[in-house]
Every structure is written in structure tokens, then in C-alpha cells.
Amino acid sequence: MSVRTAYVDGIAFWSPRLPDWEIAGAVFRGEAAPLEHAVKRPSPQLLAPTERRRAPDTVSIALEVAAAACRSAGIEPRSLPSVFASTHGDLAINDYMSRTLADSPTLISPIRFHNSVHNAAAGYWTIGTGCNESYTALSAFECTFGEGLLEALVLASCDGRPVLLVAYDIQAQGPLATVSPSNGMLGAGIIVAPRASAATKAQLSWQTALGESVTRPLHRNAGLIAENAMAPCLPLFEALAGARGDAVNVGLGPVLSLEVSVESVPVSPSSSDASRNPE
Prior knowledge:
Blueprint: E1 4-14, H1 21-28, H2 49-54, H3 57-73, E2 82-85, H4 91-103, H5 110-114, H6 120-129, E3 135-138, H7 144-159, E4 163-169, H8 176-179, E5 186-193, E6 202-210, H9 234-242, E7 244-253, E8 256-264
Parallel strand pairs: 2-3, 2-4
Antiparallel strand pairs: 1-5, 1-6, 4-5, 6-8, 7-8
């Protein structure tokens, strides 16, 4: 496959000790230390207070980084098609439902059942933002981030418009943790676009390649959240923090990978596309 180009207009990141992109980027560059005391979980302002309190962790972290990525790009959320990628979905709710079905099946909570579906976070997002654009919710086990990134890049290239990618996973619980391990909470979001604009933070040169499929980290600070199921996103976000020509390899499958080179792109305000925020 020939090398293609895309642009990153918005970036967002959240983990308990790196609760926004400004902090995470500085830590990835070695300019700062992570928070000493972990934040319990994000509190997405998109949700009403009552919904915010009862929303599961998957929804909270996905909406937090989705909204932050849109703010970073200066793009109206309702104008964006999106890709929501989660390796396991909500394993905490799945563990609850499995235990309840085994012990007291008539006591299943309708709200928890409602939040157990893999596209729950995407549904909350589109409803909360009033977005009628298409969305994709996907899972590809250890290659989930790579497949989500590829989906977003292809959509942006084919449709000629920015696409929001939201990747997230949470703590595994119960017996499921032995077969689908994941520790902590991690959410990451980017907006990829086919053209540079005033909001552009970096340029991506990408191609798919046959061969060893492994996500290669840059070995800076991955230890903070390396045991989360979405840790394969770390090499790209470490590269975006520096944006100085780093190349990363993101797994797509047993013998297929996504090769991405990250370059900084200074863009003048005059290059902005006024049509990026349709009413």
C-alpha cells in the first residue's frame, strides 16, 4: 500500500495520573511528573449531573476524551463522524450481569443492562451532542486501537472530512479479568483530517504493511498505564507529544500492521477551512 497522509487536529488523553493532554504530553516529553495522587474518574460535563453520577466508567472516560478532542480542534462535536474503539467494553458490568444471572436472574438492573452493550458510549455521545453523523463501535482484542485508527484514517481519506477517534478501556473485574486482563482506566482521542488547518497539531504519514504485527512503544513512560488493555495507543500519543519524526508500528492483526510517522506541522491561521464547522 502506498504512503498516505492525514493530519491530527485534536488530541485528548485521560488516565488517573495523567488526567488531560497537557499533563500527559509534558510527562511523555520528560518535562513533568505525573500527578502524585490519582484522580478517581473523569466527570464529563456533557452529561446532566444525575446521568453523570450513574454513568459507567466506560461512558465517563469515552465522553471525557471525545469532548476534549473536539475542544482541542475547535470543532463542533455534532458535525463529526466518529469511531469508538474499546477492547473489552465494560467488563465491570459484564461481571455484574454474569453473577446476577447465575444467582438471582430476576434482579438484573435495566440500567446496567442498557449500559452493557459495546456501543453504549457512542450512543451517549451522539445523543448528548445531537450528532446525526455516522459512528462505528469496534473491538479487535489486542489490535483494537490499531483497527480503530485505521478505520478513522480511511474514513477521513474517503469522505474528505475530519473524523473523531475515541479509544478507551477500564479495569477488568471478576473471573473475566483472568482471561481479559486490564488494569486502571485509559482514554485517548484524536481528530484526524484529510487536510491541514489552523488547528493542525501534527502530520501523519501512514501505510499498512505485511509482517510482524506488534505495537512498538517508544519506551518513555508507558509503565504508568502499560497494563491497561488500551496501552497499544501509547506509542502514537508519545510520538504526538513530541511530533518530531517519530515512527510507530501499530498492530492490526496476526501478520498486518499500521506504520505511522509523526511530523510537526506549523500551520498559519490563513489556512483554516471555514467549512469545518457546519451549522
